[in-house]
Records
---
Amino acid sequence: MELAARYGLSNPEHRRLPKRIPPEKARIDDTSPVLTYDSGKCITCFRCIKACTEIQGKGVLSMNSRGDTATVIAGFYNWKESECDGCGECVQLCPTGALVERLHREEINITRTETVKTTCPYCGVGCQITLHVQDGKILRSDGFEGVLPNDGRLCVKGRFGYDFVGAPDRLTRPLIRVSEKKGTFKALAEGREPQWREASWEEALELIARRFSKIKEEKGPDALAGYASAKGTNEDNYLFQKFIRTVFGTNNLDYCTRLCHSSTVTAMLKSIGDGAGTNSIEDFEKTACLFITGNNIIETHPVTATYVKAGKQAGNKIILCDPRWTPLADYADIWLQPKIGTDVALLNGIINVIIKEELYDRSFIESKISGGMESFKALKKLASAYPPEKAEAITSVPSETIQAAARLYAGAETAMVVTGMGMSQQTHGTDNVFSLINMMLISGQVGRQACGIDPPRGQNNVQGVTDVGCSPIVYPGYIPVADQANRRRLAELWQVPFESLPAEPGLTTIEIMNAAGEGSVKGLYIMGENPMITDPNQNHTAEALEKLDFLVVQDIFPTDTTPFADVILPAASFAETEGTFVNSDRRVQRVRKAVDPPGEAKEDWQILCAVAETMGRPLGSYSGPSEPLGPSEHFGPSATSAASTTSAASAASNIFDEIARATPIMAGINYQRIEEEGIQWPCPTPDHPGTPTLFLEGFSTPDGKARLNPVHYLPETERTSAQDPFILNTGRLLYHYHTSTMSRRNKPLRDFIDHSYMLIHPDDAAALQLSNGDQVRLENNRGAFSSTVRISSGVSRGELFVPFHFNESPVNQLTRSDTLDPYSKMAGFKLSACRLVKED
Ligand SMILES: Nc1nc2c(c(=O)[nH]1)N[C@H]1C(S)=C(S)[C@@H](COP(=O)(O)OP(=O)(O)OC[C@H]3O[C@@H](n4cnc5c(=O)[nH]c(N)nc54)[C@H](O)[C@@H]3O)O[C@H]1N2
Ligand SMILES: Nc1nc2c(c(=O)[nH]1)N[C@H]1C(S)=C(S)[C@@H](COP(=O)(O)OP(=O)(O)OC[C@H]3O[C@@H](n4cnc5c(=O)[nH]c(N)nc54)[C@H](O)[C@@H]3O)O[C@H]1N2
Ligand code: SF4
Ligand code: SF4
Ligand SMILES: [Mo]
C-alpha cells in the first residue's frame, strides 16, 4: 500500500497502462458465466494459472504460446467448454484487470464502494468474504486473505452468489392469509395461489400472539413447536430457543440438523463424547491419509477440498467411499463403491482385516478405550463374521480393495475420517458412524495432531445453532434438558421461575411434522426453513402443514412452505444483520451488516423479541447482538416501554454476552476477540486461545475414554421389487444450495445449471430405451416427480441419483418419513425404492 501511494497509484485513474497487445489483436474470451478475459491487458505473469492450479487444485488454465503472442486459455480453447467451475480465484489474483468479474461490471466504481468483511452465507466451511457495497447495493464479493478458514479462497457461490440479497421478490411486509388453508397443496398443483393481504407489524404480532396463546391455553405448551434456522446467526437462534422454552414453554424445538448430521452426532456423542469435528481445516492438507465417505467434498465443501487437493499434491493418500462417482474419485488412491446402504458391512470388513493383519494399535486400545482389550475382543468377535469375501458379497466392493483400504488407513502415520450425508442420511445412519468410529479407534487414529473424525458441517451455522441450544434434548452448550443444576442456573440468568423451564426431551424435526399430521402439535413457528422441499415424504408434509391450527413462517423469500402459513414474516438476510456463525471447525466468526433490510423486513432476533413481548413474556431488553453497536432499535407494541426498561434488563442487553454466559464452551469469547479472526470452541475463559484439535488430552466422556460400539449390518427394510426396481439416491451439486431460495436468484449460478436431472447407468438406460434429455417420471407408492435423463457410468446399475435443489422436481415426493433411524430419528434420504416411466 505504501508503495502504491508513493507512486501515485491510489487513484485507479493513474493505474491505466498501455496495452501489451493492441485492441484489434487482443483475444477476448467472454464465454464464462462469471468472468471475462482480455489478453490486451494480460502481462503473462502466470498468477491466474498458479491460482487455478496451486491454490484451487483445478489446473484449468495454461498459456497457449510464449513471448509476445502468449495468452491465457482455459481448457483447450474457451472458458465455456473448459472444466472451469467459476470459483473466480484467477480473477481475485489477476493484478492488471485482464481477468475481471462479469457481474456488475458496468455499475461498479471502486472509488465509491465501501467494504464490509463478513462470513459467506452458504455452507459450513465459513469462508471470510469482503463485500463491496455501492449506494446500498452489494456489487462484488472477494475472499478475505490472511485468515483461516479460507485465506482468500472462495467457491462460485461465495463469490458470485450474493445478488439474492437485493432480489426484487424479497419479502418486505408481514402478510396475513385471507384464503382457506385446507386444500392448499391441491390448489397449488392446479395453479391457484393462496390469497394474502399486507399487514402492519402491529397487526401481525397481535394475531400471532393471540393464536399461539390460545393454543397454549387450550392444549398446553407441548401443542406448540418451533423450527430454528441454520441460516440465522447464533444470536437469532439463541433467542429462538429461549423463546420456545420460556414463552411457549416446551422443548419441541429442532431444525435441519436432524435431517443432516444427527446420526453422526448421535454416534460421536456416545463413542467419544463430542459431536463436533475434531480437526482444523488445515489438517485436511496435513494428514497422511484421508478416508472420505458419503461426502462429495469437492462440490459441497469446495474450499475444504482445496486443502485436500494440496495434500494429495504433497503425497498424502485418499480413500474415497461413495456408491457414485464424485469429482474426488479422480484424486483418490482407492475408491470403494459399495451398494447404497451397505456401509456397516463394508466397515466391518475393513475392521476384520485390520484385526486379522494385526494393524490395530494395542497401546491405544489399552489406555484410551473403555474396557480396553475386553471391549476390543467383543468387536473382534463381531467382525469375525465379516471376512472381506463376505463383505464383498454384501457390498459388491472387491475383497482386495477392502484389504487395501484397511492397510492404507490403519498403517498411515496420521489419518482422518471425513463423513457426510451418505453415511448419516440412512435409517441405519447411527450404526454407520459407530462402525466408522470403531475402525478409527482400534487403529489409534485419533487423539493426535492431524488425526480424528470430521463431519464437514453443512449449513453456514448448523454447528452454532445446536451450540446455543436449539435442540429438543440439550440446552445451550450441550447440557441435557434434565440437568437440574443447569436449569437453575439458566432460570436465574433468564429471570424466569425454575419450574417453568421444560425438563422433558421435546420432539425432533420429523416427529414434529408427524405430530402435526396426527393433530397433537397445533401451532408451529418456522424461522428460516423450507420443510415442504426438505422434509421427507412431501405429501405427508403438506397434509401436516394444512392440518395445523396456526403456522408462522419467517423467511427472506416466498418459498414452497410459505403458502401453508397463516402469517408470513419478512426477515433480514445475513448481509443485513450483525452477529456470529460457527463454522465446520467450531470457529466462531463475525457476520456484519453491509446493507439495510428491504422494506419493513426485520432482523430475526428483533422479530422474536417483539413476538415475545406481545405475548406478554419479554425475552429481555437487548441493545443488539453486541455492545459496540448503535442505539437500540425496538419496534412492536411495547417499543417505548422496552426501550426505557432499566437496570436489571439492560445489564444483559447484549445478546452475545448472554450466550457466553449461558454456553460454557463459548464463555471466553466476545466480539472484540473475534474481530480479526474467529476462535474455535471450547474456549472457556477470556484468556483461553481456543481449541484447534479435540481429544489431545482424552475424550469428552465422563471417564475420558472412548467406547467401542460393535454393530451388525442390518439390511434395509426399503427394498427393490419387481414393481419398484430402482434405488433413488439424492444429494447436492456445486452451483445450488438446498431449496435454491438463495442460489437460484443469482444469474451466474443459474447460467451454470438451472434444471433437474436424473443419473442412470448406461445398461439401465438401454434396457428402458432411454436417451439423454428424455423426460422421465419417478414414482413409488408415496408420490411422483419428473426429471431429465442423464446417462452416466458414475452410478451403479439399479441406482439413480437426482439433486434435491429444484422444486419443480421435488425428490422428497419419494422418500419415507415412517421409518426413522431409532437413535438419531434420521430419515433415509439416500435410499428410496422407485420405478421409472418415460414421459412423452
Ligand atoms: N453446493 C452445495 N454445497 C452444500 C450444500 C448444498 O446444498 N449445495 N449443502 C450443505 C449441507 S447442509 C450439507 S449437510 C453438506 C452435505 O454434503 P455431502 O455430505 O457431500 O452431501 P450429499 O451430496 O447429500 O451426499 C454425499 C454423498 O453421499 C453419497 N451416498 C449416498 N448413499 C450412500 C451410501 O449408502 N454410502 C456412502 N458411503 N455414501 C453414500 C452420495 O452419492 C453423495 O455423493 O453440504 C453442504 N454444502
Ligand atoms: N431428499 C433429500 N432431502 C434433504 C437432504 C438430502 O440430501 N436429500 N438434505 C437434508 C439436509 S442435510 C438439510 S441441512 C436440509 C436443509 O433444509 P432447510 O433448512 O429447510 O433448507 P434451506 O433451503 O436451506 O432452507 C432455509 C430457508 O431459510 C431462508 N433464509 C435464508 N436466510 C435467512 C435468514 O437470515 N433469516 C430467515 N428467517 N430465513 C432465511 C431461505 O430462504 C430458506 O427458505 O435438507 C434436508 N433434506
Ligand atoms: S474461475 Fe476458478 S476454476 Fe475457473 S479458471 Fe479461474 S481459478 Fe480456474
Ligand atoms: S466453500 Fe462454502 S463458505 Fe466457502 S465460499 Fe463456498 S459456499 Fe461459501
Ligand atoms: Mo445439511
Note: The CA atoms of residues 47 and 521 lie 58 Å apart.
---
Amino acid sequence: MDSSLPHRDLLREACELAIRHLAGIDSRSVFPRAEDLARLVELDRPLPDAPTDARDVLRRLDQIAGPCTVASQGGRAFAYVIGGAHPAALAADWMTSAWDQNAVFHDTSPAAAAIERAAMRWVLELLELPPSWRCAFVTGTTMAHVTALATARHAVLERVGWDVERDGLFGAPPITVIASEQAHGTLDRALAIVGLGAGRVVRVPADEHGRTRVDALPRANGPTIVCAQIGNVNGGACDPLREIASAANEMGAWLHVDGAFGLWARAAPTRAHCADGLELVDSCAADLHKWLNVPYDNGVVLVRDRWTFAMRAALSMSGAYYPDESHFDPGRWTPEASRRARGITVWAVLAALGRSGVADLVERTCAFATRFAEGLRSAGYEVLAEVPLNQVLVSFGSDDRTRAVTQALVREGTCWCSPTIWRGRVAMRISVSSWATTGGDVERSLAAMIRAARSS
Ligand SMILES: *Cc1c(COP(=O)(O)O)cnc(C)c1O
C-alpha cells in the first residue's frame, strides 16, 4: 500500500515538522526575535532554474520561516484580534488540503457542498436564527461585508426600479450610507469596492465606550443602508441593535451589522445580550478565523431570508460550461467561483465544541479579559473603556509611555499585544480570542505587563 503513494514520506515529514512547531510554541517568544527575522532574506532568492527535492523545500521553510512565525497557536498572543486554530479545525484543515476540493458546485465536490450546507445549518442554530436565512463562507469579514453590501445595493435599488447588476451605478439613484464614526476600516474598504464610496458615508457619533448613539442617528429618505456593529475592534462595545433596527425600519433602510468577532457573543448565555436584536437585521458579516478559532482564512455572511433573491441577483454567474442548478452550489452565494472548501473546518470546530463548547470558549475568554482589566487597574494603570467582551484597552500614562511599554512587552516575549488609538489616546489593546489561553497564561502575561510597565 505504501508504495502506492510515492509522497507519503514527504507528507509524514510535513506533519512531524508541524507537530514539532506546535509543541515548541509555549516556550518561545510569542513575537519572533530580531535575529530570526534577519534570516528571512534567505528565502528571497532568484527563481531556481532546476527542481529541488520537496523535502529540502520543506526543511528550508521549517528552519528559516518557522522561527519567524508569530506564535498565535499558543495561549499568549493578544495582539490585534487573532484567534488560534482549534485542534479539531486545524486537523480538518489538513484534511481539506489533502482532499483539495473545488467547492464551487455540487458537481465539483458533492462532499464539500454537503458539508458546507451542514455547517451553515449549525451556524444558524448556534446563533438562534431562522434556518431559512442565507449563509455563505468567504475569506473573512471584509469579503463578507462586500457580499452583504452588494446584496443590500441590489435590494435598495431594485425598490426604486434600478437594475444595478445590469446598469452599474452610472446614473443610479444615490444610496445614503449611515455608519458609526467607530466603524471598522474594512467597512469603508468594502463600501469603496462596491462603489458606494467611503467618503460619502454619513457618520454617527459614538458614546465613550464606542457604541453608536441612537439619539444621533440621522433620518434619511430613499435608498438607504445603515451599518451597525457588535464588537468594536478596540474595546468590544456592542451597538443597541434593537433600537437601531427600529430606526432603520422607520426609514425603510437596509440594516447591516459588522459582527466580526462580537457575533459569537450570541452563543454564550451571559454575553448573548450583546447581540440582542440580531434577528432583526438584514445582513451580518463575521469572522470564523478570530473568536471561533477556525484556521485562516474564513468568514461568514448572513442574509435575512426575505433577501435571498437579492443575494442571488447580486452574485449571479452563468456560463455554458457550468452545471445547471439542480443542487445546492456553495459558489453561487459567494463572490468567488473556484474556492477552498471552507465549510469543512467550520463543521469540524462546531462538531468538536458543540453549543456548550462555543459558549464556554466565549465565556472563558471574556472572563480572562476581565481579569486582565482588574489586574492592571489594581496595579495602578488606567483601563480606558468598559470590558463587555474579550477586549481590554489600557494606558500606562502618556502616549509615549504606553507605546514604550507595549514595545518592551513584545520584545520581552512572554506575550504579544498591539497599540491602538482610543478616543485620541494611545492604548495597549489586549484581545483574548483563543481556546488555547489558560488562567496560567493570563497570570504570566499580567506579570510581564506589570514588569514592562515598571521598567519602561
Ligand atoms: C477584524 C475585523 C474586521 C475585518 O475582518 P477581516 O477578517 O480581517 O476581513 C472587521 N470588523 C471588525 C470589528 C474586526 O474586528
Note: The mean pLDDT is 97.
